[in-house]
């Protein structure tokens, strides 16, 4: 459903038309998400009828339980924040610096009655405190870049932010600033050892990330999405290494089961098609 920019209660001044999306991807509840109508994320949710970056979300899901803390850096309209809060009952601290998108994020949290689980902080994160302005990407608000040096957007660091609990999942999607965000949170990462997801858009960035991952005692555990998004797991202590090995083993078993299930479904469909073709031939020969 496409809505006029002035027709959504509680959004204040929004300069774009919005689309109302209703998802039934979660077994326990229906979810409503408002998104900018011509935006890439909105279109993808609408076409797939499920949450954006679904496979990444389901890969992260086992690492948090009810009441566990997720930090969502670059929350955008709230796709990931809503998923963790609604599906797992997780607490979420969502960082979104773009004023108009942050208002849509706020409305999405309210309309899904998740105010008690999701806290929105309207600032950007980086390697050090600074100010910045946003460089918008037409047709994809999720690709808006923060330009440091001048502007009215405050840039904080993960280490300067206060969190009331151990961070279980740290999701970073900061459009080229992911590694800077991680470097600005090394004390938090050393203390809490969260599962991390972060995005890399170039070979040089991947090289830098690989070096950093080794320095902080993490390892790569998965790759997702059109823009490479990596799942990073702690990999220093014996306990962390054992947990990583369990995760890899479980993932392999699940992949094998999924492949077997898909093969079974294909065989069933093939049998049905064959039976239907035979029935058509019988009718034609009458």
UniProtKB/TrEMBL annotation:
Keywords tagged on the record: Methyltransferase, Transferase
Annotated InterPro entries: FkbM_mtfrase, SAM-dependent_MTase, SAM-dependent_MTases_sf
Molecular functions per Gene Ontology: methyltransferase activity
Pfam families, A to Z: Methyltransf_21
Thylakoid in keyword set: no
Keyword Repeat: no
Biological-process GO terms, alphabetical: methylation
Domain Methyltransferase FkbM, chain residue ranges per copy: 72-219
UniProt xrefs under PANTHER family: METHYLTRANSFERASE, FKBM FAMILY PROTEIN, SLL1173 PROTEIN
UniProt cross-references to NCBIfam families, sorted A to Z: fkbM_fam
Protein name: FkbM family methyltransferase
Species the sequence originates in: Neomicrococcus lactis
